[in-house]
User: What shape does this take?
Amino acid sequence: MKLHKTIVVKSKSADFMNTVSMIPKRLTEIRSASAEPVTAPERFQVNAVAKALHPTELFLRIRRIEEHSPDVKSFYFTWENNVPTPYFRAGQYLTVQLKVGSSILTRPYSLASSPSSALHGEYHIMVKRVPDGFASGYILDNWKVGERVTAFAPEGNFVYEPLRDAKTVVGLAGGSGITPFLSFARAIADGTEDFNLTLLYGARTKDEIVFKAELDQIAKTCDKVKVVYVLSEAKSASAGYEKGFIGADLIKKYAPESEPYSVFVCGPGAMYRFLEKELPKLGIADKYIRMEMSAGARKLADEPGYPTDLLGKAFCLTVVNRGETTQIEAKADDSILCSLEKAGIAVPARCRSGECGFCRSKLVSGEVFIPQGVDKRRIADAQFGYIHPCCTYPLGDITLKIN
Amino acid sequence: MSKKYDAIVIGAGNGGLTSATRLALNGMKTLLLEKHNLPGGFATSFVRGRFEFEASLHELCGISPLINDNGNLAKIFKELGVFDRIEWISLPDAYRTMTLGDGDENFDYDMPIGKENFIARAEEYVPGCRAVCEEIFDLIEQINDGVNFISNITDFKPNMVKEILDKYQNFLNLAGYSVNQVFDAMKVPKKVRDMFAGYWCYLGVNLDELNCIHYFTMFHSYICEGATIPKKRSHGISCALLDRFEELGGEAWMNTKVAQILVKDKKAYGVKLESGEEIYADYIVCNASPYNAFNKLIDRKEVPEFQLKNNNAKKLAAKGFAVFLGLNKTQEELGMKNHTYFIYDTADTKLQTDMCHSRETNGVQATVNLNAGDPDCSPAGTTILYMTSLFLGDDAWNDVTPANYVKLKREFAEKMIDNFERGTGIKIRDSIEEIEIAAPVTYAHYTDAPNGTIYGYDAVGTNSIVHRLMTMAMGDKIKHLYFAGGYTQQCIGFSPSYTTGNMAAEQILIDAAKEAANA
Assistant: This one.
């Protein structure tokens, strides 16, 4: 047997007694403790802030509607009980829930307001009619002042982060993609955010520009914000306007010459496809380019690798939800999330572009298609058969466990 | 319609997952309830841009690649049938540990894994320290053997007392002392202590107050048995356990929050969900903290006085803070070669834990370069680095509001980045492609952790791991209610949480067999 040197702290017997007394000491401490409630978790400031920032759901009231055109409206919300709406970061989105007929669906909309306005209980979003769009059409035609809207607290990663981004951001906005930049501009103007924003705001015509007066006013009074309007259908450039599409040359013209800059992009799919070729010409590191995710409808037929002979077909989707099983129809061209929503099955969903992971569900059986570039799953989720239904399409009958 | 199960497990954290899997493996009809949309609790991961960040695990002990047949945790995972569903990576080094605020006394030691390597390196830093290092390792091994001997006793026989007295005398006599009390007795020089002390921040207790058995067994498991990480993050372990549980016939409901544990006449019989639905079971495992269970989930008049007092006799331990960085350079380009960096303000661990009470004075960080263990964990040309700090006491974030939250956490993150650059000489600031910052508010949000606590109850004084284990069977309890996870008898950590979950399930199986025999 190996001989160990005996370690003595006080004396051999005192050390042994020290061990022997451990249980009585512990029991004495327990018995002398209070039997009254300790601090309830929600009474800690940390827990209170967590709850204020991330309530389970929000009930908002439409306070005002501003019609920019028949197909574009701004909605100004306030929380029902005059409690501040959850604070957020400029650039984040609000998810609203809609009940249309028997469908229950959600849609994310970038907040256009400054975070500071949330402290007065206000949110501002803008909705533009999407051709054949289910939700946008419903909102534009049905939402009235005074209407109660269920929503989920703001989130999203399209935010300015000084530890990561350059001091100057060249913002590229296309059409209704102006909303997060409106939030950035307003937040810079009121001191919530601190960076230089040079905004290149693309629209087809002058008439399509929204909030021009406010943007011009901010640019006039705040030297950190510059706005350039870029009109694709203008006959020629004029004072304060550029002509054409937003590309590398235009970005270089307005970007700082001798210091790093970030490029933030939010706009329609066509703009992203155009910029895919333009942005590499800037020669800046990838970390300086941030694209807001595109939640727009995808054209499955154009996705590489998709078996187009399935288009138009419908499959059986077996849904397992807390031990209960139901069967619904799933069209090949609808995302699985979309099929669930059409069947009136409420699923946690936020970003609708594969990123946030709220709709993460287990594919129990069947084959699915995930378009390139939208698979943002964790590696273990891919291994163990989890999918994000918002950007996944059925290739046949499938069984999905949603809860 | 009411549902009835043999067992319900509340929370799919590490403890809940092993509990549920063990119960299902033994034929119990088991329902696992999780409020979040994925399993794991703190053991999870998240994606930002082209990076998948590990949310909490630094390194796992108990898999033990350096010892025959692996370690205690590996044994559990093998029994549960998940060991081979997880790809394990052994870590190449232990830690680089340093201080920043001790002026001329600052140190910077780069310590390897493996007893002999460790001693040889110590001898390089402090010539002549080999003898005392060997003495420390001898003690650590003896204590570790003693713990294993005692925890493997299933049928106690009187002659075992003699064996314990003969073979594990140091273990027996030192069980109530702190690490520094033992180091003082052994006259361990300061520099040698500093080399051995690296891991203390994993337990959040300074070495004047940290039970020596606790620290030495943990130290043994990392240095002598080897540390590992799961290739697919801790979320890979969580998924493997859940997958196995479901394969065994277990039912798991995500997005399902428990509002109440149903207790009548001091006996648990089911749960009430937030939806109002009641579900019944013979046995309940609670992977939510006893803190929340006794404060929120159980009708107070059903909680035995002993349990309330036991709960109140403990303080909440460290609150978490973490900065996750996706860097657009390789670790070689950055000049980073270690997996773990411990950066302290001072070598005086008592002073350090005092400093951990406020954002202004706290500068502790335990930082992981994930690519050191797994070069392929991020896309080519990039590195994942994450830094964790700890706050002690209850007040460090009392000034946080919804409006200043992002600013406050960014300020502290910036200090951690600066400290890392200053301490290691490695420049990372300009390479940050993705950043996420988790503050106590974040942990409170995702897990309902009181005050953002990530380390359970503080393992100090008479609430040390040894005290907890010695008294775990004592006092009135709610019948058929069992706790699992980092707040329980084995204190905080990944490995203890898995282990206590498994133990809770084993206890249920024993109790169920006894009750069946008596019926």
Q: What stands out?
A: Chain B touches chain A through 95 residues (CB under 8 Å). The longest helix of chain B spans residues 494-518. The first strand of chain B starts at residue 3 and ends at 10.
